Amino acid sequence: MHLDRSHIPGSLAALARWAVRRNRLVLAAAALFVVLTALLSAGVSAHLSTGGWLAENTPAAQVRHRLAQSPHGGMPPLLLLARTTGSVDDPAARTAGTHLAEDLRRVQGVTAIDSYWTGPLDPTTSTPALPPPPDPLLRATDGRTALIAVWLDTTEPAQHAAIADVLAHADGRHGPLKTRAAGEAAVARAIQMYSERDLVRMELLALPITFVLLFLMFGSFPAALLPLAVGTVAIAGTAAILRAVAAVTPISAFALSLTTAVGLALAVDYSLFLIARYREETALGRPHAQAVVLATCTAGRTVIASAGVVAVSLLGLLLFPVPLMRSLATAGISVIVLAATASLLIVPAGLACFGERLAGRDILARRRQAARAAARWKTLTTAVMRRPLVVVTLTSILLLLLALPFRDVTFGFSAERALPAGSPVARTMNDLHTNFPHLGTEIDVVLHNWHPARPDDVDRLDAYARNLSRLPGVQGLRTATGTYLSGKPVGRLCQPTDATPARHPCAGLRRFTLPSGTWLAINAAPWPYSTAAVDLLNTVRGQPAPVSALTGGATADFLDSRTSAFHHLPGAVAVVTVATLVLLLAFTRSLFLPLKALLINLLSLTATFGAMVYIFQQGHLRQWFGDFAMTGNTDLSLPFIAFFLAFGLSMDYEILLLARITEAHGRTRDTVRATAEGMQAAAPLFTASAAVVLVVLLALAVTDVAILKTIAVTVALSVLLDAAIIRPLLVPAVMKLAGNANWWLPAPWRRRLSQRPGSELPTTTPLQPSIPSPQTMFPSPPDKTRTNRPGPSDDSCRPERAP
């Protein structure tokens, strides 16, 4: 296969020529890469974390780390609800509960047990001769349900194994007792199981539909296979990267689902750009090999620019001290880079390997009638530009109306409400909140570097505990000196003035003493993220303490994470904004176009956030989106994740459109004509791409986990608004209003950019006065009886200079 190298300069052209020449080697290497990375990433789900929602380096995080030094510090991750038809104080129930607690403390990975019948136990101590008085906080108000609290090894792999063993021992019937699992660890395990199952279901649903859509777009089975091959390489490679990174730092299990969705969507995008451009070149009469290289040289720059902007968008998530956001950014950036790289290698190699007959063949060209559709896009754009001010006003009002529900956003964490409302763990958690309302919120107070060994210190701790237990909303407090209700001690674990009671070991003193101090556990009824819980936490923080005190627990974690997120938000937005502006500036050689793109994207994203609140926080349209629990709040991390992800995908379409408009303007020097021609060329591409992205995201939206459902639906709505309103209506209207200002750039910047090779937008036929724009999205091959046009000039991969 002969290529005239002198006509196609640049590194992209060199890469394309190499891929064309070594097409079978490239495809074989891609297949080998998939096999090797699949082997390296085998079992990756078992190494991923279900946590990572909380900010690091906060006071609440310090409390979490200090409580982790104790085998039974903080809220127990696993709670077993043991219910009987009689009373939990019946001898048979007491005997069964005691035996169960004794069995569980011997399970590998269990660090401590606390039950209504036995009191605190751990694997290193013997059972006391006389059991302590029953703890009233572990007994339900109806007297038929009691709790067994289980503390587990804090390392996640050991914790996963321990949970499985505990449930194998405990879940089910034990004499008169029937036990069910609840607690943070049970919720995390259920979310992981649902996520793994949903990932398989999403792939089984998305891949066949995507392939059918690709065939309808391309009219060729070989061409439809190329995007799926690119997506497979990107997804498999990213899974291997996540497996390697997970050995060093926690990676969220949700990153794997995001990898599949984003990788498949962008693989289709980038392959679509390249194949469409290839068919345009063959329709212009280019020889097959030269058309492949020209398509890679021209559309490849769009792919690189798009990948750069989308990756930069996700880069903002790396700036938040939240492991979940960082792991999603790691997965997203990895899959973007791999999708772009794979498309620039696999698509040219695949087209070259197929040959001109298979690569250019479109058996559905006549039925698709894409020529009329492309003409309609041009007609619509022209009509919009006749009344640009009216269009801008009406579309802006519509987007602002859609954004109105976001005024009522209330932040929190999903916890068990991320699970389907009918799941067993979700039902058990509801029973826990009903029967043990005082366990709704736990506030942990750590007295820094203070161990009350002397009698007067113990008395000071006792007085402090009494004072906190009197606060409005507090329904129980436990610390080294005992259990307190309404300012009075009940079920005392040890005498304040005696560190070693004669009757049994002072388990309370041992449990609530840390290497770094002494802690108190305050239980209250309010939901952890409610206003009442926040008010109680602030009241506790305002009480005088014997020594310096730190507060933790779910409410403190939420408040500190929210403060940290909003503290880092301006910096993250600034970095993404500046980096995006620089990339778009180099790509468009205009100052106005990047600013316009940013402002329009922000407007559309605000509208999608309104939908997020309207659907998932307020519970509207639940019949459309499946079984999910209405939380009454929006998970703190989700707007940030959806913002940066949707921002990047919107910029993907913006770059495609700007590439075609700028290319047309380089020939015509007419903004109105260039916008119409650019829309005619780009609109079929980004609408086709949006259709595939919507399929992928909506396949992810059928997940049973509300967190993934929220991200998928929100980003899908953003893509829909982008393809239906922003690009075809708002962008042309703003372009018309701006006029020549669209192309303005300060002279020093223009000179500097013009000196940078490859920074300008390519054009295929620079010497022609007008574009021979294809009348179909994927034109049929040229007439074989027509003489092929001569190859492009030496400037074929370089843009014309905008005025």
Describe this structure in words.
- This protein has 803 residues and is α+β, with helices and mostly antiparallel strands.
- Among the domains are: 106 residues, Alpha-Beta Plaits, CATH 3.30.70; 123 residues, no CATH class.
- Helix content is 59%, strand content 9%.
- Strands 8, 9, 10, 11, 12, 13 and 14 form a seven-stranded antiparallel β-sheet that branches. The chain has a six-stranded antiparallel β-sheet with strand order 3-2-4-1-6-5, with helices on both faces.
- Strand 12 and strand 13 form a beta hairpin.
- The longest helix is centred in the middle third of the chain and has 38 residues.
What structural keywords apply?
803 residues; 15 strands; seven-stranded antiparallel beta sheet; Alpha-Beta Plaits; disordered C terminus; alpha+beta; disordered N terminus; single chain; 9% strand; six-stranded antiparallel beta sheet
